[in-house]
Amino acid sequence: MKSTLRKDARKQPHGPDPPTESHTPPILPQGSPQRENQRGILFMVLSVTLFAGHTLILRHLGASRSVDFSVALLFRAVIGAIIVFAFFPSRRPLQIKPVFTKPQLIWRGILGIIGTAAFYWSIPQLGAGKATMFSNTYVLFGTVFAAAFLHEYLSRIRIISLIVAFGGLVILSSAIPADGSGHNTLAVAVALFGALIAAAAVVLIRHLTLHYSNSTIFLSQCAWIAIAALPLVLVRGEWSLNTHDIGFLTAAAAMAAYGQLAMVQGFRLLNVATGASIQMALPVVTALGGFAFFGEAFTPTQLAGAALLLAGTYFVATRK
User: Is the CB of residue 228 less than 8 Å from the CB of residue 113?
Assistant: First the structure.
């Protein structure tokens, strides 16, 4: 009889406990699947909030304060490196020497420079919402790269989703009015190029995680961004910052670093589909913030393209 009860217990699903008659929520034991799921969702929501706040701050500094994107890059690198050394949790040790000697980590840093610089430059040009929309297409490019170079399987629904998403991307891009100098067209091209580079970085990171800790990989990005950004800042003479600028730049850099930390922790506690679903809210939250704080608006055609892009990207990110 006891053996039968044990077998039946093992067959029970790992879902939430049914509510009691008084509807009092059950006390969850530490480490239970439901508690881990709740913590993962909180980390993902925190990540989206921090990333959106970071982008909106850069939008303010770039468009309203005329702070050059190279300065924002340098702050992100320096603050990120400090956070890596002081607070970045990792199961494997932080390694410094390989960041400057191992070709794959160097390439990770170079891709980080290009991708982040393209995104930062495009924020004041396109607005926070549209820049994030284009930046988020790295999910699409990364899926194509993973299928091509890592031989990951593409199901029929993911192929259809890719077609829908790229169709939305074409609609959104073509609906952004071009000015006489072609500046808007250049901004879209730069943002998409940054997303393409970010996708290549994601594929490389998947390989690097087999050999290095998350902290070492993150440090490679910070170190090489600093190496590239410092000479650019010195040449352009972009040091005329007041206390307001320094405070916002520091806050934006910290938000980006902790947003990445929260996202990594969220993916450790959630399955990929759930985590990716929450991350898909980032372009929407940023666009709403851009509208609320800066009056950024989407035309009906742009909204239609953005909706197709987000819907297609959602299914690409959440379906096996």
Answer: yes
DSSP secondary structure letters along 94-153: --SHHHHH-HHHHHHHHHHHHHHHHHHHHHHHH-HHHHHHHHTTHHHHHHHHHHHHS---
**Whole-model pTM?**
0.83
Q: How many helices (H) and strands (E) does the chain have?
A: 14, 0
Q: Cα–Cα distance between 305 and 171 in angstroms, integer?
A: 5
**Radius of gyration from C-alpha coordinates of the chain:** 22
> Which residues are CB-neighbours of 193 under 8 A, at least 6 positions away?
118
Condensed to tens digits (0 to 9), the pLDDT of residues 206-221 reads: 888 888 888 899 899 9
Q: By the 8 A CB rule, do 298 and 163 touch?
A: no
What pLDDT does 182 receive? 58
d(CA 29, CA 112): 41
CA-closest candidate to residue 143, choices 313, 276, 283? 313
CA atoms of 122 and 157, how far apart (whole Å): 32
Is it the case that residue 320 has pLDDT exceeding 80?
no
Q: What is the C-alpha to C-alpha distance for residues 156 and 162, in angstroms, rounded to an integer? A: 10
